Amino acid sequence: MYSTAFLDIPALASAGGSVQLPGSKSISNRVLLLAALSSGTTAVHDLLDSDDTRVMLDALRALGCQVALAEGTTRITGLGDARPAAALSLFMGNAGTAMRPLTAALALLGGDYTLDGVARMRERPIGDLVDALRQLGCHIDYLGTEGFPPLRIAQGAGVPALALDRPVRVRGDVSSQFLTALLMALPLAAKSQDVVIEVVGELISKPYIAITLALLARFGIAVTNENWQRFRIPAGSRYQSPGSIHVEADASSASYFIALGAIAASARGQKGIEIHGVGLNSIQGDIRFIEAAQAMGAQVSGGPNWLRVERSTWPLKAIDLDCNHIPDAAMTLAVMALYADGTTVLRNIASWRVKETDRIAAMATELRKLGATTEEGPDFLRITPPATAQAWRAASIHTYDDHRVAMCFSLAAFNPAGLPVRIEDPRCVAKTFPDYFETLFAVVQPASTGVPVICIDGPTASGKGTVAAKVAQALGYHLLDSGSIYRATGLAARQAGLAIGAEHAEAIADLARTMALRFDAGRVLLAGVDVSDAIRTEQAGMDASLVSALPQVRTAVVALQLGFRTLPGLVADGRDMGTVIFPAAPLKVYLTASAACRAERRRQQLLARGINAKIADLRADLEARDARDMNRSVAPLKSAQDALLLDNSELTIEQAVAQVLAWWQQRQPFARSAAG
Ligand SMILES: Nc1ncnc2c1ncn2[C@@H]1O[C@H](COP(=O)(O)OP(=O)(O)OP(=O)(O)O)[C@@H](O)[C@H]1O
Ligand SMILES: Nc1ccn([C@@H]2O[C@H](COP(=O)(O)O)[C@@H](O)[C@H]2O)c(=O)n1
């Protein structure tokens, strides 16, 4: 997951391969609550692991449910007749699928609870649900603004006598989650008589209600659906754990990859994108996004648990669509509209205004930043794509703490202008799809501009490694510590009993080419053994300097280094990154510091490892190493002609990092366009 301030996605050209989607958020949180309300233990397979499901799990644990995770299966032991003795404060984050159903369930369980969430949750309406529960006789108070969280459910003395002799009425035209919440909770009250729920107004998002009904049936509650207007829960209803249940992958998450297949040219040798975990028979309403994508020109095939999507009509066809049946996935259509042959209109999407953010306003604003023309109404959005490739702009997409905004705008990186897209706060995808960007990067290829590389070269102990690691971390880029490749080669040569010199150049080059070197979470593994410390000694540095002077060895490790250049970008540190390995890199830094300063830094570094070395010796060693690195015949250490010099003798690490990042920002197009 990317936890950086922003994530720059370079211009993309094609896609191909297969993706496995995470479990559905809607199904996961419904299953968790139903398992909690049942007696016995339910084994939940493929549960989504995300912010919103964690919120639900935390709440269930606080209520007294046992939750155990082992080998990808979550086991929930239901509450049975147990109730928490003391008052509980529950934090719901921004998870509507936890806040609404838990409010109803807790009101019907009895007890004292406070339910709150993040600032946006306090703006998301819940009044219609609370009204319905109050009608029944439940005691619920608002602790802030009327109609919005935080709430207090105050039924320490137990659930009051409920008015079940008449239908419970709830509005269906603001959020279908209110009805879902009642449907999941009211079986608790349907003991000696049927409970009837009556929908007031047109019921929106019926497919989500269909999911609720299907899952209730799996947990033993057979609700009668009377034309989506009345729902009857039969007397004597009891939640019964199915024992084991599988969570289908998220159909809304599939929308980004369906759109990807529709937008991106197939990568060489590939036939579009294959999506696993959800298929044509999905119980989720958002699967009907496929029909919308097909209407725009996508070619979609599939089976029970998989889909394949290929680009067909190009440009895509503009559509005018009532999106009430696919409220979440329809946001993806708004970005597909950027690639259409005219104006697309998405209608009947008023519910977007009360989601994680006001999604109509958010989408309109961010699409405009890219160069599109948009018009928004109370329940529609009209999108006209940029008229020409030149009319596209590199935008920094504000994501409003809304996972779907972040995910769907990643697809703007296929713009014909070859511009990158900046996604602000990429971590927000953790709500439903923590590894979204990693999954995307595994199946897309960059445009001709390539994957960006920042090179940081310089002499020994100038701070290259430290600065490079921090720059990479700030940008979410990969890191190539090229020195460690030479260090590992030196170690491998010693282990093989080879003296390091020209006479063994071929043998050492063979070792370098074939050694099983792996970089894993900051550790260096040689033939499966962690050699991170062994290659950091002063002797290993000298050996590295010797092997790196052998031309055969340098050639042997070129491909390995080039292989690090993967999406979304690379920071490479070494001696010849900017001069030889990545000569076209868009930013090259030559990082240096005075010899005295570098020797002192090295002394401090060794002291931290409990090694006391003389500063004069250290300085002599590093000057000898620099001299060899600078004077060897191949790829000598020198500043690339187009490198920027950074002498950090007088800088802190943070200042050096800030300078490199500032130079990188100057090379980005976002700053200019973000204001526009
Ligand atoms: N302003 C600074 N910038 C970078 N590093 C600094 C700075 N001040 C102190 N240091 C310290 O200098 C030491 C050497 O840094 P580092 O190991 O990153 O250098 P290097 O150039 O990668 O060395 P080598 O060439 O041996 O791999 C580290 O302990 C680092 O914390
Ligand atoms: N691109 C590179 C990187 C390193 N070397 C040689 O390896 C030695 C060790 O490098 P460190 O950065 O880990 O200290 C270094 O002294 C160089 O001789 C290289 O040649 N090219």
TrEMBL record:
UniProt binding sites for phosphoenolpyruvate: K25, G96, R124, Q177, R359, R404, K431
Sorted UniProt keywords: Amino-acid biosynthesis, Aromatic amino acid biosynthesis, ATP-binding, Cytoplasm, Kinase, Nucleotide-binding, Transferase
GO cellular component: cytoplasm
PROSITE patterns: EPSP_SYNTHASE_1, EPSP_SYNTHASE_2
Span of the signal peptide: none
CDD domains: CMPK (cd02020), EPSP_synthase (cd01556)
Main location: cytoplasm
Listed pathway(s): Metabolic intermediate biosynthesis; chorismate biosynthesis; chorismate from D-erythrose 4-phosphate and phosphoenolpyruvate: step 6/7
EC nos: 2.5.1.19, 2.7.4.25
Chain ranges of the Enolpyruvate transferase domain: 17-440
Matches recorded under InterPro entries: Cytidylate_kin, Cytidylate_kinase_dom, Enolpyruvate_Tfrase_dom, Enolpyruvate_Tfrase_sf, EPSP_synthase, EPSP_synthase_CS, P-loop_NTPase, RNA3'P_cycl/enolpyr_Trfase_a/b
GO BP terms in the entry: amino acid biosynthetic process; aromatic amino acid family biosynthetic process; chorismate biosynthetic process; pyrimidine nucleotide metabolic process
Ranges for domain Cytidylate kinase: 454-663
Reactions catalysed, as given in the entry: dCMP + ATP = dCDP + ADP; CMP + ATP = CDP + ADP; 3-phosphoshikimate + phosphoenolpyruvate = 5-O-(1-carboxyvinyl)-3-phosphoshikimate + phosphate
Subunit and partners: Monomer.
HAMAP family: Cytidyl_kinase_type1, EPSP_synth
Described purpose of this protein according to its UniProt entry: Catalyzes the transfer of the enolpyruvyl moiety of phosphoenolpyruvate (PEP) to the 5-hydroxyl of shikimate-3-phosphate (S3P) to produce enolpyruvyl shikimate-3-phosphate and inorganic phosphate.
Family: Belongs to the cytidylate kinase family. Type 1 subfamily. Belongs to the EPSP synthase family.
Protein name in UniProt: Multifunctional fusion protein
Organism of origin: Simplicispira hankyongi
